[in-house]
Specification:
With about 525 residues, the chain is of the alpha/beta class. It has helices at about 1-20, 40-45, 55-60, 75-85, 90-95, 135-145, 155-165, 190-200, 205, 245-250, 250-270, 300-320, 355-370, 390-395, 400-410, 425-430, 435-440, 505-510, and strands spanning about 30-35, 65-70, 100, 105-110, 120, 150-155, 170-175, 180-185, 210-215, 235, 280-285, 325-335, 355, 380-385, 385-390, 420-425, 450-455, 460, 470-475, 485, 495-500. The chain has two domains: about 30-275 and about 285-325 and about 480-529, Alkaline Phosphatase, subunit A (3-Layer(aba) Sandwich), CATH 3.40.720.10; about 355-455, Gyrase A, domain 2 (2-Layer Sandwich), CATH 3.30.1360.150. Helix 13 crosses helix 15 (about 400-410).
Length: about 525
């Protein structure tokens, strides 16, 4: 009996020791990589032109989830990244997009505009205070009592502010008009190497000015799309005017800028080499070049091929300086893709169906005037797929909001090209169903409209009076967007299922042993528990 008990104790002790040794160490450095419009099918199509230590290494050695799902409408980079970093939807975090419309003021503004804070190396006055919930980086700062360093680098303002959060050391983006690394005085730390780069004669503002973008490889190597084979190589010029840097931010040169500047800060600030873990956020661009009228181009292949080299540099530098076992890297797409639409010619005998939002707005206003009176304008604006009614006038006339919304929805649903119309009353108070949940996730009381208008696929959305309006053809294609966890002892595995975007923040928080952001309801992904 004594021998049996002794043996059991020995077995239990060994099992306990083994269990303890398999517990993942808390990473000393977390690198969050968000790639705007990254497509999983393109990673496979362009794979033959990748090196062994860039995207291939992430795909072969990381934990790869096949696809990510953002369960709300009108997705863009701002709303997507806010969802990734907060672990919740716009209904809670408040970021419905890069721009928001205030019906009370009849005014469209940039979501993060904030006149209380000036800009460094920019005229933009912005802050991250539009975020209504905490982010992963905020929770890290709270957990370590501010001793962790948090830096973010991105091409665009929203991307940088969201990933730095409300408590980050600094958020940097490329200014549209100077090409310099810009930030807001909301953040108190302008790191010296970034300032030094801005003052040099060899920074992005110099490189991108009057620059030509040509293929990295021979055009014979760009074989992913048979429709573009045997075409001449491209050559695009950034120009020398006020649009220079905005155009350059859709070229690979902006990814090179993000990578090189972030890696300099990684080295000089000694991120990942202290007791408290540090966080480095990087946003890259993998969308179409706007001056090409097709999705099947040499240009999009070159974007991925060059980005692959930047990923390789990043992984090599982290492995050398901090160690991949000490670093958690997570890579995510923003879950959408802006197509470069093709205009059909009359010779192709294909009708081009258009939905004119300006005509819809005018006709709806006339219809409501006929019912409720011609003394005022009943429709404020048709913006971002939503109709904003004149709430102040409705209140003055003591008209039931539900009634006028229902009448307006019924009228618009008769328009050619309209698939369905949902009212904000239905979204807030209607019977639950998956469609209502989808729209409610993207709804905010402060900035959402009275009607959500769904346009039929194949229709082009047009706004005739607005020359700056970018026409968009409606497509409901699924865009496969992978999520990758790499380093920190994570075992290579491919998971063929779609995960929720709201599951990423709780998972990263779990690995870092901190609380999830305060509006995150999902649990950590089971494969990483």
């Amino acid at each position: 009996m004594i021998r049996i008990i002794t043996s059991l104790v020995a077995v239990l002790t060994i099992t306990s020791v083994q269990a303890q040794t398999t517990v993942r160490e808390t990473p000393k450095l977390v690198i969050g990589i968000t790639i705007d419009q990254l497509r999983g099918d393109y990673l496979e199509l362009f794979r033959n032109n990748f090196t062994e230590r860039g995207f291939k290494r992430l795909l072969n050695e990381g934990l790869v989830y096949q696809n990510i799902k953002f369960d709300f409408p009108y997705l863009d980079d701002a709303s997507a990244i806010a969802t990734i970093y907060t672990g919740t939807t716009p209904f809670y975090h408040g970021i419905v997009g890069n721009k928001k419309y205030f019906a009370a003021k009849d005014e469209e503004t940039f979501t993060f505009s904030d006149p209380n804070y000036l800009g460094n190396y920019t005229e933009d006055k912005v802050s991250p205070l539009a975020l209504k919930t905490s982010t992963i980086t905020d929770e890290l700062k709270l957990a370590t009592k501010g001793t962790s360093d948090v830096y973010s680098f991105a091409p665009q303002i929203s991307q940088a502010l969201i990933t730095a959060g409300l408590r980050g050391n600094a958020a940097y983006w490329v200014d549209d008009y100077t090409g310099k690394w810009a930030t807001s005085t909301y953040y108190k730390n302008f790191y010296w190497t970034v300032d030094q780069e801005n003052r040099s004669n060899n920074d992005f503002s110099v490189k991108a000015w009057d620059m030509r973008w040509t293929p990295l490889l021979s055009t014979g190597d760009y074989k992913a799309f048979p429709y573009v084979e045997n075409k001449s190589p491209f050559s695009h010029h950034t120009g020398v005017d006020k649009a220079t840097y905005q155009l350059a931010k859709t070229m690979p040169v902006v990814n090179e800028n993000v990578s090189s500047t972030a890696l300099t800060v990684l080295s000089k600030a000694e991120l990942g080499k202290r007791t408290s873990p540090d966080f480095l956020s990087m946003t890259f661009y993998a969308g179409n070049y706007p001056n090409v009228n097709t999705d099947y181009s040499f240009e999009i292949q070159d974007v991925y091929i060059r980005l692959d080299r930047e990923i390789e540099k990043l992984l090599d530098e982290v492995e050398k300086s901090v160690g991949l076992k000490n670093t958690l890297i997570f890579v995510s797409s923003t879950g959408y893709f802006n197509s470069n639409e093709i205009s059909y010619t009359s010779e192709q005998n294909i009708p081009e169906n258009k939905f004119y939002i300006n005509r819809c707005e005018a006709l709806l206003n006339m219809y409501l005037m006929a019912i409720y009176g011609r003394d005022n304008k009943w429709v404020n604006k048709f913006h971002n797929g939503q109709v904003y009614l004149n709430r102040e006038l409705i209140k003055q006339k003591q008209i039931s909001l539900q009634e006028i919304q229902d009448k307006a929805a019924e009228f618009i649903s008769e328009f050619t090209g309209v698939q369905e119309v949902y009212t904000s009353y239905q979204i807030q108070h209607g019977q639950w169903n998956p469609v209502m949940e989808y729209y409610k996730n993207g709804y905010t009381k402060e900035t959402s409209g009275d009607l959500f208008v769904e346009i039929q696929p194949g229709y082009k959305i047009v706004n005739e009076p607005d020359p700056t309006f970018k026409e968009k053809q409606v497509r409901n294609n699924a865009v496969i967007c992978p999520v990758i966890f790499f380093g920190n002892g994570i075992k290579a595995e491919r998971i063929k299922r779609t995960i929720k975007a709201t599951e990423i923040a709780p998972t990263v928080s779990y690995i870092m042993r901190i609380r999830s952001p305060n509006a995150a309801r999902e649990e950590a992904l089971s494969e990483l528990l």
